[in-house]
Structures are given as structure tokens and as C-alpha cells.
Design a protein that fits this description.
The protein is an alpha/beta fold. It has a domain of 170 residues: Alpha-Beta Barrel (TIM Barrel), CATH 3.20.20.100. The chain is 41% helix and 12% strand. The chain is built from eleven helices and eight strands. An eight-stranded parallel sheet has the order 7-6-5-4-3-2-1-8. Helix 2 runs parallel beside helix 3, helix 3 runs parallel beside helix 4 and helix 9 crosses helix 10.
């Protein structure tokens, strides 16, 4: 599977991730089309979405754009959360995986997706049941590869061992959060990916905007920013040690004559086990900053120096 090193994250299309209270927010359809046009024109061929993003709007808009433009992009989508926001309709039971896959294919307007990921682990469903459903989808030609998002090393190993023991389609991909604000957070998962030959596509490379420089000690959070709309995943970052590290990081970016956001992405792209980085630009100029990271070369010593700022 040939992926561009930058993947377009579509989590803000018609909402902010899978949060039901924010369905209908985020980027409008027109804004989403503009981002997809810019990404495709720049050579980005990997679009990442999920059934629940924007209450189904993200998949629907990606599918509509794909048909309108005749663009043959690599599609990645996910299953776990409810498309309608129903708190009781979630998880990875066999029935849900098969049903949600059918809904995703319909919204995307395709017969098959290249990557189908479990969005979260499901403690209420045995992993074998989930894997059997994913295996059925693979054998039916509805998915090309399967994988996991937001997984721990222990959960990933359990899934791989169960697949091997029962002759089922294995996870071939992992999509976990990784960025400079937690440079060692995925060491265990990455080691398994290297050993088992799995692709690794980190998301949230800018930590909800913290690595762009938009959040400072003394100014209020910008209107419409992630910290205004959905701050919970990043509230712990608002501390003096974080701001000191960000000051040092900005100085490094200035020395290299680039933007902090571009340098943060370049650090990820320089990791030898990173297949592609999923970015979620809100505007086309954000996408340009991400694509500029492809031209920034960091050697191992510089990578380690950058990571040490945040340890």
C-alpha cells in the first residue's frame, strides 16, 4: 500500500472528532472540499476519517468529494463510536463491526476501503470476536487491511497472538497519538510495529495546536481553537514546564528558519518507523506548513535534541 508521507485527517469535517455535542461544528462542507482539493493537488493520497466523525458528515463529504473529483485516494476509516451520538450504540461486537462497515462503505461510496481500524479497544467484547468480524470483512473484499487505533502494547500483542492462533487476518496498521510533547509515549507500540512489520501512522502531531505556538502563558485561547472547543485531552499541558519547553522549541525552529508546526511534523517524519503522519489542518495554509516538513531534514542527533526538550 503506497501512502503519501502526509495523510489528511478529516476529523474536523462537520464536527470535532466523535463528540456528539459538536456534530455540525468544525469545517463546513465547502471548507472540507477546499482542504481536500489542496491536499490532492499537493500529492496527498491518504485520507483518514471515521464513521463517527461529525456524525457521519466526514465520511459522506469525503465520499462526495471523491466522486465529484474522480480522485482515487487511499481511504482509512474507523469503527467504535456511534454515528448518531447514541451512547448505547458503540463498541466492537461482531454485529456492530459488520453493520458499521456497511454504513461507512455507503457514505464513502465505495465497495472497499484500504484500511479499516478499530477506533478504541472494547473491554466489553472479546478480541477474538472483533477479529473474526474483521477477518470476514477482509475475506469478503470489503477491507484491504485492518488495524487498531488508540491501542496499548498489551492490547496489540493480544490481538496479534489471537489472530495467529486462529488463522485470522492480522492487524497490519497502528494509528496512535504521538508528538513531541510526549516523545516516548509510543515506544512500546512502536517496538511491536517494528518487530511485526506493521505500519505506524501517528495522529495529533501538533498536540491539538500546542506545538504551533498558538497557546501562550498570558493570552486567552484563540476562538475556535481545540482548547476552546474540546480541551479535555490537552488541559494538563497548561503548565509552566510546558511553556518553557515550547519557548526552547520555538528557538530551535527559528534557528532552522521554519515554523514550529513544520518542525514538529519534521521530527515525526524523521522517525524511521513512521509510515505517514495524519494531520488535521483547519485551513489550507495549515496544510502548506505541514507539507513543508517534507523538505526539512533532521539527523538522529537533532531528533534526540528536540525530544529532550520535552522530557
Amino acid at each position: 500500500m503506497e501512502l503519501s508521507r502526509i495523510g489528511l485527517g478529516c476529523g474536523n469535517f462537520g464536527g470535532v472528532g466523535s463528540a456528539p455535542e459538536l456534530f455540525g461544528r468544525g469545517e463546513s462542507e465547502q471548507e472540507a472540499f477546499a482542504l481536500m482539493d489542496a491536499a490532492w493537488a499537493a500529492g496527498v493520497n491518504f485520507f483518514d476519517t471515521a464513521a463517527s466523525y461529525g456524525g457521519g458528515r466526514s465520511e459522506s463529504w469525503v465520499g462526495r468529494w471523491r466522486r465529484d473529483r474522480g480522485a482515487d485516494v487511499v481511504l482509512s476509516t474507523k469503527v467504535f463510536w456511534s454515528v448518531t451520538g447514541d451512547a448505547d450504540d458503540r463498541g466492537l461486537s461482531s454485529e456492530r463491526v459488520l453493520r458499521e462497515n456497511a454504513g461507512s462503505l455507503e457514505r464513502l461510496g465505495v465497495d472497499r476501503v484500504q484500511m479499516y481500524l478499530t477506533h478504541e479497544p472494547d473491554p466489553e467484547t472479546p478480541i477474538l470476536e472483533t477479529l473474526q468480524a474483521l477477518d470476514q470483512l477482509a475475506h469478503d473484499g470489503k477491507v484491504e487491511a485492518v488495524g487498531a487505533s488508540n491501542t496499548t502494547p498489551e492490547q496489540l500483542l493480544e490481538a496479534l497472538e489471537a489472530s495467529d492462533a486462529h488463522g485470522l487476518t492480522r492487524y497490519a496498521w497502528v494509528q496512535n497519538e504521538l508528538n513531541l510533547l510526549g516523545p516516548d509515549a509510543q515506544d512500546g507500540v512502536r517496538e511491536i510495529c517494528r518487530r511485526e512489520g506493521l505500519g505506524f501512522t501517528p495522529f495529533s502531531p501538533l498536540a491539538g495546536g500546542w506545538l504551533t505556538g498558538k497557546y501562550t502563558r498570558d493570552a486567552p485561547y484563540p476562538t475556535g481553537s481545540r482548547m476552546m472547543l474540546r480541551p479535555e485531552p490537552y488541559e494538563q499541558l497548561a503548565s509552566e514546564p510546558t511553556f518553557r519547553a515550547l519557548d526552547a522549541f520555538r528557538a530551535e525552529a527559528d534557528e532552522l528558519e521554519t515554523e514550529p508546526a513544520t518542525l514538529a511534523l519534521a521530527w515525526l517524519l524523521a522517525q524511521p518507523d513512521v509510515t505517514a503522519v495524519v494531520v488535521g489542518p483547519r485551513r489550507t495554509e495549515h496544510l502548506r506548513s505541514a507539507l513543508a516538513a517534507l523538505d526539512v531534514e533532521l539527523d538522529e542527533a537533532r531528533r534526540d535534541d528536540l525530544a529532550s526538550l520535552f522530557r
